[in-house]
Each structure stands twice: as C-alpha cells, then as structure tokens.
Specification:
This protein is α+β, with helices and mostly antiparallel strands and 141 residues long. The chain has helices at residues 39-45, 57-69, 83-93, 117-126, 129-136; strands spanning 9-11, 22-24, 30-32, 48-53, 74-78, 101-103, 106-109, 112-115. It is built from 5 helices and 8 strands. The strands form 3 sheets. Strands 5-4-7-8 form a 4-stranded mixed sheet, with helices on both faces. Strands 1-6 form a two-stranded antiparallel ribbon. InterPro entries: GlrX-like_pln_2, Glutaredoxin, Thioredoxin-like_sf.
Length: 141
C-alpha cells in the first residue's frame, strides 16, 4: 500500500531566485521556472492549469473532477525538491506579497488564480464551476 503524501502550506520565501531552478512538467519533460518561458507562459496559454505535488491524492481529486466535467486541464506535477521555487513563481504571477500562503493543488482558470481544492469543490457543489469554466473557454457545451 502506498504512503499518503502530507498536505502542506507553503509560505513565500524571498531568500532565493526561483528562476534558476528546474521543475518537472506533467509528461516528464523539464521546464525552466522562468515566467517568460515556463510556469507563467503555461498559465497564459491554457484555459485550466492544475499545479500539484507529484503523487498527492488531493491533486488527483481535482484533476479527476475537472476531467469528469469534460475539461482537459494542463497538469504541472511539481517534484519535491522544487516546490519552493514553483510556489514563489506562482505567487509572482499573481503579484503575491511576502507571507502569503499557498497550498497544492493550485488551479488557474482563464489565466488567473482560481484557488485550491476547497474553492474548486465549493464552486462545484454550488453549481458555479461549470459556468466559470465555460467563460474561460475550457468547456464548449
């Protein structure tokens, strides 16, 4: 039986430059964490992007929910050693401030930060998720 990966909250660290590190993308390819080339460009080019820890059960739940609704999200699996750099890059995209917290999975819809697991589940239960996805161009029905 597999061991569960713990759910962590990350606080932005201003001590390092995340642009010099490398993270792993969904298909196993390596993508530099530069806003112009990597994470930021991925967010701008895709209607829905899911950033999550490799093997995290909560990330799997979000991906399966979106796929079940008919969305084909771009998935960015973050390796354990590069989590801090990716979190810093995601907060930079959103203009985050020091001390702001972020939890995986992180979902971007229409190029903007949508939220995490709690926000996706709450909007799905209330019936607001499908119209939001249609407005972002992720659903055509």
């Amino acid at each position: 039986m597999q061991e569960a990966i713990p759910f962590k909250t990350y606080i932005r660290s201003s001590a390092r430059d995340p642009r010099d590190e490398i993270a792993s993308c969904g298909g196993g390819q390596q993508v530099p964490n530069r806003t112009a080339n990597g994470v930021g460009q991925m967010v701008q080019k895709n209607a829905v992007v899911v950033f999550g820890r490799r093997g995290c059960c909560m990330c799997h739940v979000v991906k399966r929910l979106l796929i079940g609704l008919g969305v084909n999200p771009a998935v960015f699996d973050v390796d354990e050693g590069h989590e801090g750099a990716v979190v810093d890059e995601l907060l930079t995209i959103e203009g985050g401030k020091d001390g702001q917290m972020i939890q995986f999975p992180v979902i971007f819809v229409g190029g903007r930060l949508f939220g995490g697991l709690e926000r996706v589940m709450a909007t799905h239960i209330s019936g607001e998720l499908v119209p939001i996805l249609k407005d972002a161009g992720a659903l055509w029905l």
